[in-house]
Every structure is written in structure tokens, then in C-alpha cells.
Design a protein that fits this description.
single chain, 108 residues, mainly beta, six-stranded antiparallel β-barrel, 1 helix, Phage_Head-Tail_Connect_sf, Head-to-tail stopper
């Protein structure tokens, strides 16, 4: 069944995203049109004080990276490399829905 949300993930990536080099563990590197962000988040340190941390995330259409797995890497245009730590569904019912990857810095 066609959903009113079909196609929105592609539009979002086209407008807000850029080609991001993706390196799966078991295959060649390729550029994937997607959205990489480093979002500031307030957390609490061990003493109970608020601190600001940066949480890198990668939003990508699942059908563009069907082999996506933990440990795969991306290298966005900021000169750093990140490994996929966790993969979460976006919650969209669309056929082209994106997934949201939590990332960890592997090189600076």
C-alpha cells in the first residue's frame, strides 16, 4: 500500500544532505546521499554538573545501504571518520524510510 510518506526520505536527503563516503566492512567504499549531523546534547557528568557533548548521527535511506551493520564507517566532509555504533529505525512507515545511526569517532 502506498503511503503519503513515501519519497520524503529521499527529498530530505537531497535538500539537507550531501554525498557521504560509506565504507561497509565487507565491500568497496561508495558515496551515499544522506544527512550527517553533530548535534549538541546536554548531559550530566559524574558530579551532577551539566555538560555539553556532541552526538554524531547519520540519517540514511535503508534501501541505499542494505548491508549496513555495526562497525561500518563513514567519512563526512569534516575530515573525521566515524564507525556505526547503533542503528535505529526512524519511525517512518514509508517504503523508503531512513535509519538513524549513532556514530563514534574513530579518527580525528
Amino acid at each position: 500500500m502506498t503511503s503519503v510518506f513515501d519519497g520524503l526520505a529521499g527529498v530530505t536527503a537531497s535538500v539537507l544532505g550531501a554525498p557521504v563516503p560509506y565504507l561497509p566492512k565487507g565491500g568497496p567504499s561508495r558515496d551515499v546521499q544522506s544527512v550527517f549531523r553533530e548535534t549538541p546534547i546536554e548531559a550530566t557528568d559524574q558530579d551532577g554538573h551539566p555538560v555539553l557533548i556532541v552526538a554524531p548521527t547519520w540519517r540514511v535511506r535503508r534501501n541505499l545501504v542494505p548491508e549496513l551493520a555495526r562497525g561500518d564507517k563513514i567519512s563526512p566532509a569534516n575530515g573525521k571518520a566515524y564507525a556505526v555504533k547503533n542503528i535505529w529505525p526512524s519511525g517512518s512507515p514509508a517504503a523508503d524510510a531512513a535509519v538513524i545511526c549513532e556514530l563514534e569517532l574513530v579518527t580525528a
